Amino acid sequence: MITYDGKVIALWGDDMVRTQIQLSEDEVVAVKRLARERSVSMAAVIRDAVDQYVSRESGASLGERWQRSLAAVGGFHSGRANLSATHDDEFAAAASE
After folding, report:
1. pLDDT (tens digit, 9 = 90+) per residue, 35-54?
2. Residue spans per domain, the chain
3. CA torsion, points 60, 63, 66, 71, in degrees to nearest 10?
4. Nearest-CA neighbor of 38 among 53, 14, 46, 50?
5. Could you report the per-residue pLDDT of 60-78, keeping only the tens digit for each?
6. Which of 57, 37, 34 is nearest to 45 (CA)?
7. Cα 91 from chain centroid?
8. pLDDT tier at 89 (50, 70, 90 boundaries)?
9. Do the beta carbons of residue 32 and residue 42 sit within 8 Å?
């Protein structure tokens, strides 16, 4: 794939495999919007999303992802001392609003 200024301008068609996927209505609307904004096909948007996902997921081993997750522990503060003990009640209250 060749991109210019964030837009796909050429694809290598010889290595493409035709496939079929099912998307929700909301996903179709979002993909069509992105395709229109980028002046590319829906297929190009979906290929780009798949490329990014595969790159992100295969770029780090399970151990590396585990270490990143552990590094995030304690990185967020609600300012409330008892939230870890009352999180279920807090979530239920917030979800019912």
Report:
1. 999 999 999 999 999 988 88
2. 20-59
3. -90
4. 46
5. 777 787 888 888 887 777 7
6. 34
7. 24
8. confident
9. yes
**Structure tokens of 88?**
């279920």
Say how far apart CA 57 and CA 63 lie, in whole Å.
Answer: 12
How many other CB atoms are found less than 10 A from the CB of residue 44?
Answer: 20
- DSSP structural state of residue 2: E
H-type alpha helices, the chain: 25-38, 42-58, 62-72, 83-96
Q: How many CB atoms lie within 10 A of CB 45?
A: 20
Sign of CA dihedral 34, 38, 42, 44: negative
Beta bridge partners of 2: 10
Q: In the CATH scheme, what is the code of domain 20-59? A: 1.10.1220
Cα 40–chain centre separation: 19
